Task: structure prediction
Amino acid sequence: MMKKFPYYPGCTLKQYPKKFGIPSEESARALGLEMVEIPRWNCCGAVASLTADDMMHQVAPIRNLIRVQEMNDEGLVDNEYRLVVFCSMCFNTLKRANMMVKENEAALNTINEFMDREQDYKANVEVVHFLEILRDMGFYRLEDMIKKPLKGLKIAPYYGCNLLRPKEVGIDNPEAPTIMENFVEALGAEVIDNPLKSLCCGSYHTVGGHKDIVAERTYAIVNAARKAGADMMITACPLCAFNLDDRQALTKELHPEFQHMPVLYFTQILAFALGLEDKAGLEENYVDARPILREKGLMD
Amino acid sequence: MSKEKENDMKMITVYIMGKAYKVPFGLTIMKAMEYAGYRFIRGSGCRAGFCGACATVYRRKGEYKLRTALACQTTVEDGMYLAQLPFVPSNRKEYDIEELDPKKNVLSEYYPEINRCVSCNTCTKACPQELQVMDYIQASIRGDYKLVTSLSFDCIQCGLCVVRCPAEITHYHVAQLARRLYGKYYSPVPQHLLDRLKEIEEGKFDSEIEELKKMDAKKLEEVYVARDIQKIPRGEVAGE
Result:
């Protein structure tokens, strides 16, 4: 029997399904967790608004949370108010908006009054990252379900900012997180500690006129992982994944001696370890992870 | 209209640009304004709810909300405040559909302001066609041409969404670009249309056309009435 969760994909999982959406949804399914996409979801808000009286930018995230109430009303999920998110950025934005209205009744009332064609948000939804679902399920149980343990593979987790900060929103200790390390261990791989695992990846500079900032960050972060002995890195944030993987092209231009390293989205390596090799989207990354997987005898 | 006839009619009071007028009950906003003496040289078109020219703003007695509608499709109520929009000077980009690369998010490239959408849903509330306008803008941010096409298909381009949007998005031009991209690059090509085009190019109908050109109006009418009409059973689509 599949356990059904309301699921918020966000734009990146949908726009690049082979690399993000399919590995995430299929891995969950293989673990007995059915991700039921919110009907008619809208943008998460992308960046949490820090202005205390700016209610307009809270409308988008709260509207998505109202859809979770509707899913329960309509029986698409069974009394399940935990909204599962894979993208760290969507997770951060949705959770912060949710926290804001839970703590500020006046703000909640204003937003409910504004959205007079929707049912009121009752502040009863909980925004959770998929890694939290795995942790709550028990990483030892995940370990039991792995079809292809990643024996001999050295993986350096990379957190970035949105999974950990601010600490009220973060899914783990912002200074010394272990959740992704435990995840990597459950897959049967060896955990490599990257001292720069929560250094900023350069974020939105990647779309502006300062791509070099991102390329330099990538240089520092990937080199630190290599120095620590990693074969590859994983991250839960699609923007970090883009910056650390695709931006390696520019890093190489700026630093000809730079050595490429594969950077996978965490559900890509999860799908692979669950035996869903054809659903892992390994052909989608800029730096191909397949040679190292073959070298380790994990792939034909 | 004779004075006696007017007395028989139920009259109501509406306020056109702030001034009170007595108009007969049951008229559309457009006809009520004409009854009061206004003459439309813009902001009026088909008068049947299809062309989208007569976007209008009104308020009902006792309400705080400004409502939007098509003036030719909405009947007046007592105490209504009315104002007609002659034109929406919205931003429309020029492009050559042949030169666009649909694999990129063309909508975001030509109309980057779609990314300013905060999902306030004001556009959806403004739409006289009752389309899910916000949903198609959200789909356009993701480059989902197919969803934009299906959600916006009944758009009549009245411009009311544009007038109301706090993010200054030009919804209907974005949707039109999406439909063009979907139509050109993704929707299946109908074989019967290709076959017919080929027949036309090969001159299969040239002699018939020449014959029709020579006919007078009366004869043309006879031919028209007597023409073969393809019977399409209910629920089926021609050409399938």
